């Protein structure tokens, strides 16, 4: 907790997302060191927490960690389960994964939602160009 994962969770959540009590936070890879810390810090601050992880054992661990809702990203209806878990939308999404989890979260983000991007693990080994993740060039020639 005092090393890089804890600092990443602390800085990403408190310095970038600036959560307030009563907000809904979702975090992907929520059983990993960063995601677990994000969820627990958010819970201490009074947020409603939705943890997303892969597999029944990890979902059970999310419940042990105190997340309000624990979802399996492998569920056949992740979109529907997430909509049910966040009927008033999502105020903060701590992004660790990208891919299908991001696709399920994106339509549920509230106006002025904050999305600290820690990683995009689902795309790390992709050899294809990733749609929507290209940053436009702001200058011609070398910048």
Radius of gyration: 15 Å
* CATH architecture classification: 3-Layer(aba) Sandwich
Summed up, the helix count is: 5
Q: Report the CATH superfamily.
A: NAD(P)-binding Rossmann-like Domain
Outline the low-pLDDT stretches: 133-137
Sequence of secondary-structure elements: HEHEHEHEHE
DSSP summary, beta strand count = 5
What is the CATH class designation? Answer: Alpha Beta
Helix content: 25-40%
Question: What's a concise summary of this model?
Answer:
The chain is α/β, with parallel strands linked by helices and 143 residues long. The chain is built from five helices and five strands, in the order αβαβαβαβαβ. Strands 3-2-1-4-5 form a five-stranded parallel sheet, sandwiched between helices.
Explain this structure to me?
It contains five helices and five strands, in the order αβαβαβαβαβ. The chain is α/β, with parallel strands linked by helices and 143 residues long. It has a single domain, classed as 3-Layer(aba) Sandwich (Rossmann fold), CATH 3.40.50.720. The chain has a five-stranded parallel beta sheet with strand order 3-2-1-4-5, sandwiched between helices.
């Amino acid at each position: 907790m005092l090393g890089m994962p804890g600092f990443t969770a602390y800085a990403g959540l408190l310095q970038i997302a600036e959560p307030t009590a009563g907000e809904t936070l979702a975090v992907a890879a929520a059983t990993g060191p960063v995601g677990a810390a994000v969820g627990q810090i958010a819970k201490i601050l009074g947020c409603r927490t939705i943890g997303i992880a892969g597999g029944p054992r990890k979902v059970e661990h999310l419940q042990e960690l105190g997340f309000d809702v624990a979802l399996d990203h492998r569920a056949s209806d992740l979109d529907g389960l997430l909509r049910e878990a966040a009927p008033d939308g999502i105020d903060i999404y701590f992004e660790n994964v990208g891919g299908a989890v991001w696709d399920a979260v994106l339509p549920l983000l509230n106006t002025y939602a904050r999305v600290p991007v820690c990683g995009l693990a689902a795309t790390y080994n992709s050899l294809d160009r990733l749609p929507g993740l290209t940053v436009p060039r702001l200058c011609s020639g070398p910048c």
